[in-house]
Amino acid sequence: MIGQSVGCPTLVHKEGFLMKSFAKVLNNFEKTLVTLSMFLMVILIFLQVFSRYVMGDAIGWTEEASRYLFIWLIFLSIGISFIEKKHISIDIVLDRLPLGFQKAIQQFVYLLLLVLSVFLLVQGLDLIENMRSFNQKSATLQIPMWIVYSALPVGFLFSIIRIIQASILLYTGKASNNKEEDTII
Amino acid sequence: MSSALVLFGLLILFLLLSVPVGFALLLSSLGTILLTDISLPFSLLTQVMITANDSFPLMAIPFFILAGVLMGRGGVSERLLNIANSFVGHYRGGFAIAAVLTAMFFSAISGSGPATVAAIGTIMIPEMVKRGYNKLFATALIAAAGTIGIVIPPSIPLVIYGVSSGTSIGNLFKAGIIPGILMGFALMLWAYLHARKENYKPDPKATWKERFEAINKGKGAILMPVVILGGIYGGIFTPTEAAVVAVVYGLVLSFLVYRELNWKQTIAIFYDSAISTGSIMLIVAAAAVFGRILALEQIPNTVAASIMQITDNPIVFLLLVNLLLLVVGTFMETIAAVIILTPILLPLSAQMGVDPIHFGIIMIVNLSLGFITPPLGLNLFVASSISNIKIEPLSKAIMPGFLALILSLLIITYISWISLVLV
């Protein structure tokens, strides 16, 4: 990093700074949303139990609301999981290959996943377009269903960004190495 | 049938390239649509990915993960170990037996096998070594005990099976209790025989006063399964609600009673559990898409017909199913295996007169053994990383435990009473 900034220090520094703060906002964006969804889901369902037994009058909309939060949580966590190395994969073959070969395969896999994510983003947008024209609404809360289904294209949009980020990390080598620990759950 | 070859061929290829399991299922499904004459509208594909997860019962999974992590970090494992050891520590191999008992206790809190290994292994393996146990044996025993994690309720794979088969998750949970205890006993027998052979010294016998003290210190942890199972048993909550109550209980316990968590750590635990959930549910979504293509190609029927040709004897059938599941469990990720295999095997087993709840337990016990068989034994990986032992010697050391568990598998398979008596 220090070596690179010799030619034109201020510019490189600034670009680096911009990139970093962009990444920071992005990191916190998904992180905040999935963590918040998890908290909200706990609160909503606890409220459901509490209202049924303590207040004697069950709240009807908590189940639906928590289910939709769950869907958003799932799709929003796909991208960030590339960086956190949370995706479950089978690395026994890869681990036995020479290092250079490993990198080439990983790069190829990221390319495949990128194509798949772009495909799913496009298909997801199509699906939403369809849902909007039908104007379907959820049973209890009357939320337009396209808002729920938007989780898919949004999730794969983030997936595209994160896959690109992860491929860059392949070369800068800053990816976390605690894979064993991460596959625990 | 040729499209089935393409489908599975692509899946294996992608998995070997270390494509994440969920994406490998999606890519092979998509590849099959493009390469063969199967026609499935793409819009159905994306829709299935969402509807597969639009299920309240499935939401038990994030909360059981969360509750397990909360309890695991809140110092619960030591407390449980102390209770177990105060009761059995004075027998030969008592400490190893206490370790298995602790794993069983912890299984009643956590829904995941590898998580159980991680939570108890970090404490138990060094303690066992301190008492003179062979490190390799200690590591193998803990890895094997982790299989109980998904049999004794709560259990993530049982939730998935319940949703894919349309059977009651509450009943599946009840049915898992005795089979899980049986597996525990089988491992204790192994521990006892090993300790006798190696002539390990037991601890001095604990007094009742010491026992009560240990129980008192760990009562919060022991009460958790009572809350979960009692709530489901008594019809007070659904499994998902019980899981949330367990989360709230775990928060109160580690925040207010044990005071071992602060806000920052709590947020980190919520975040961790959220993305772990995401990676599991992506597999659920992708496996649903994969299953759609299987169904479209009538593969379940073809498999059913060919198995029926081999045998119509339920005993032989169950043996074949066990062999198939053991092989699949060795090579495939558990959740994907449950979603893909349930629609194939369940109708067949119903035809053979096997109860769907009992069948679910057979399936989960089989797949749990996949956690300790290489190449894809997640429990082995976790345990080996805890004690820095290579997979190869560990795989050999675990063989007696594996055989003990196979014996319990056969008993669970052929005596349906063990699973069904509590339902």
UniProtKB/TrEMBL annotation, chain B:
It is found in: Cell inner membrane. GO terms for cellular component: plasma membrane. Residues 8-418 form the TRAP C4-dicarboxylate transport system permease DctM subunit domain. The keyword Nucleotide-binding does not apply. The chain crosses the membrane at residues 6-35, 56-76, 96-124, 136-160, 172-193, 214-236, 242-258, 270-295, 315-345, 357-377, 397-422. It is a multi-pass membrane protein. Pfam families: DctM. Keywords: Cell inner membrane, Cell membrane, Membrane, Transmembrane, Transmembrane helix. This is C4-dicarboxylate transporter, DctM subunit. The lineage of its organism: Bacteria, Bacillati, Bacillota, Bacilli, Bacillales. NCBIfam families: dctM (TIGR00786). GO terms for molecular function: transmembrane transporter activity.
